[in-house]
Design a protein that fits this description.
The chain has eleven helices and nine strands. The chain is globular. By secondary structure, it is of the alpha/beta class. Helix 6 (about 115-120) links the parallel strand 6 and strand 7 (about 125-130). The chain is about 45% helix and about 15% strand. Strands 3-2-1-9 form a four-stranded parallel beta sheet. Strands 6-7-8 form a three-stranded parallel beta sheet. A two-stranded parallel ribbon has the order 4-5. Helix 2 runs parallel beside helix 11.
Length: about 210
């Protein structure tokens, strides 16, 4: 399953983590991200508008859109029905993992400790979200976890901005980096999609070797 996530995100090293309060924001945001060269996005299920927003963004041909903040199997099912092509949780949930396996979509669980990583690997999940990355110790923790588990790949998320992003992407165990700095609430609330496109383009440029 996790291999499918690697294939799904091929060429994608940045995953904007997006919280939308209106589905009307979804289409112009998807267009802004796509034009800036961003190939994927994670729409968090934190607002009443989230599923409709996810559905609208998933309809954009230039984006691979996933659902974030998925905490139970029923949420995973609704997200996939709305077009989510991968599912992300803040932690590891075996029921969500099982439902995603049944639905045929990759599952990216959050992990913060070696024990959680071992549990994920036991479920066949060798790509995990290191969350909250910066608050937990950043690259030092990532390196400490990667050393005894060379089969694991990481998508660090949490507290990472444009300046720190290239350092994470330089680590060989990092598949991609997630973050909300590309779509800050003040730009979303004001409808400044050109500003978001500029931030996205900066991130894409900094993500290249």
């Amino acid at each position: 399953m996790s291999g499918d996530l690697t294939d799904l995100l091929v060429g994608t090293r940045i995953i904007p983590v997006i919280t939308l309060h209106s589905a009307d924001q979804a289409r112009p945001l998807a267009e802004a991200l796509s034009q800036a060269g961003v190939g994927s996005a994670e729409v968090t299920l934190r607002t009443p508008a989230a599923v409709d927003a996810l559905r609208a963004m998933a309809g954009h041909p230039g984006l691979v859109v996933g659902a974030g903040t998925v905490v139970d199997a029923e949420q995973a099912e609704r997200a996939v029905a709305a077009g989510a092509r991968f599912v992300v949780s803040p932690g590891l949930d075996a029921d969500v993992a099982a439902r995603c396996r049944d639905l045929g979509v990759p599952y990216l669980p959050g992990c913060a400790t070696a024990g959680e990583l071992m549990a994920a690997l036991k479920l066949g999940l060798d790509v995990v979200k290191l969350f909250p990355a910066e608050q937990l110790g950043g690259l030092d923790l990532l390196g400490a976890l990667a050393a005894p588990f060379p089969q694991a790949r990481f998508v660090p998320t949490g507290g990472i901005g444009l300046e720190r992003m290239p350092h994470y992407l330089a680590h060989p165990a990092v598949l991609a980096v997630g973050g909300s700095w590309i779509t800050p609430p003040e730009l979303l609330d004001s409808g400044d999609y050109e500003g978001i496109a500029r931030l996205a383009a900066q991130a894409v440029a900094r993500s290249r070797p």
